[in-house]
Amino acid sequence: MMKTTTGKKMKLCAFAASNSKQSINKALVTYACSLLSDVEVQILDINDYEMPIFSIDREQESGQPQLATDFLARIAAADALVVSYAEHNGSYSAAFKNIFDWCSRIEKQVWQGKPMVLLSTSPGSRGGATVLELAQTSASYFDGKVKATLAVPSFHENFDMEKGQMTNEALRQELLSAMQSL
Fold first, then answer.
1. Superfamily of the domain at 11-180
2. Nearest-angstrom CA–CA distance, 127 and 97
3. Is pLDDT at 72 greater than 60 in this prediction?
4. Which residues, at least 6 apart from 101, have a Cβ–Cβ distance to it below 8 Å?
5. Where are the domains of the chain?
6. Which among 15, 37, 91, 136 is most buried, taking Cβ atoms within 10 Å?
7. Cβ–Cβ contacts within 10 Å for residue 39, how many?
8. What is the spatial distance between Cα 10 and Cα 3, in angstroms, rounded to a whole number?
9. What is the pTM of this model?
10. Phi/psi of residue 76, each to 5°?
11. What is the Rg, in whole angstroms, of the alpha carbon atoms belonging to the chain?
């Protein structure tokens, strides 16, 4: 059983930084959380946090969206975070970046000191490694405590979407190790 230092069941907040309805990163993050027993997991869908594109002008005219405050509250309620990043042109998806930008205007320390496992995947051989490196590098600036990272290459060759599980045993073991670091 994974417990916090107070002896309570660990609460994980997990999400894919992708707004695709068939997101392979959501499949990966969901599977990753299933590898831990006796934890409370909340899988967020960033589509539930769609907001206008951030701009200083919009913020001055309309204030900060309630959805950004709600997203930060989900992070605050968790003991640890698991995020799987989609790579769009070598960077974050626009949908995630927009949520992050709004949240950082409310609370610069977006990750709120939480231990984190950062993941990425793609159909390609690098598995989103570029965006994962970017996320890992920036996490500490926003008060994230990265415990482990893993880029899963060639997603469709290593993961069975029908069964929702990793088919490559070596990658499964790496993922399990990453998750146990929490």
1. Flavodoxin domain (3.40.50.360)
2. 19
3. yes
4. 54
5. 11-180
6. 15
7. 19
8. 5
9. 0.95
10. -60, -35
11. 16
- Cβ-proximal residues to 162 (8 Å cutoff; 6+ apart), any chain: none
Residue 6: its pLDDT value, please? 65
Could you give the 3-state DSSP secondary structure of residue 142? helix
Residues 6+ positions from 46 with CB-CB distance below 8 Å: 15, 16, 17, 18, 19, 95, 96, 99
Closest CA to 6 of 79, 96, 80: 79
3-state SS of the chain: helix, strand, coil percent to 5?
40, 25, 35
Residue carrying the six token digits 């496992």? 117
Mean predicted lDDT score pLDDT of the chain: 96
Tokens of 127: 């598995």
Q: What is the C-alpha to C-alpha distance for residues 169 and 21, in angstroms, rounded to an integer?
A: 27
Q: What are the residue ranges of helices labelled H in the chain?
A: 24-34, 56-62, 66-76, 94-106, 129-139, 155-158, 169-180
Most distant CA pair in the chain, distance:
52
Element (H, E) at 65: none
What three-state secondary structure class fits 2? coil
